[in-house]
Amino acid sequence: MNVSLIDYGTGNLHSLRKALEAGGAVVRVDTTLTDARAADAIVLPGVGAFGAAAAQLRMGRSALHSAIRAGVPCLGICLGMQLLFEGSEEGEGEGLGVLLGQVRKLKTRCLPHMGWNEVAMMDDPLFAGIPELTAYYANSYVAQPADASEVIAWSRYEDEQFPAAVRRDRVWGVQFHPEKSGAPGLQLIRNFLAQVGK
Predict the structure, then answer these.
(1) How high does pLDDT run on average in the chain?
(2) pTM beyond 0.90, yes or no
(3) Which of 5, 80, 93, 179 is at 20 to 30 A from 20, Cα to Cα?
């Protein structure tokens, strides 16, 4: 299974690549986004600022958007999840617009949201074999999907509840970092790869 790990100048590529390889994937780090169209799956990594990442994606945005809309499975992680949406309060530039909605700043006293937090999961293959999930977060912004039915997990930080994971068809996004979330996070990555293989 060939996975295209998108390098847009930010992101924690090393640990994510290792997690994908541990799940049985052959990982190619892609800076030329048109190359991603030939992959079995696309992964958008986390860490970084929306505006800078959107600027890096600008030239290949159309090709990447087309590949995902054509059915190439995709997993967006943290910033990668936010890039699946149309835009963000954090910075200028367009997201991929694969999911409708905007990214907004958390309305909490202490930012960024750093550390471990419980995830309230709904029934989705991404969470198969994961009875409980406490995941690692590093974010100040969260996605606000236009369609609330696309939310498949929630978390709460201080007094605010926010989407922890979203799904539309074969596109998933998680606000947390599964590659840094121990055995349950690695199981989530294996579950994504299993869905790619179907």
Answers:
(1) 93
(2) yes
(3) 93
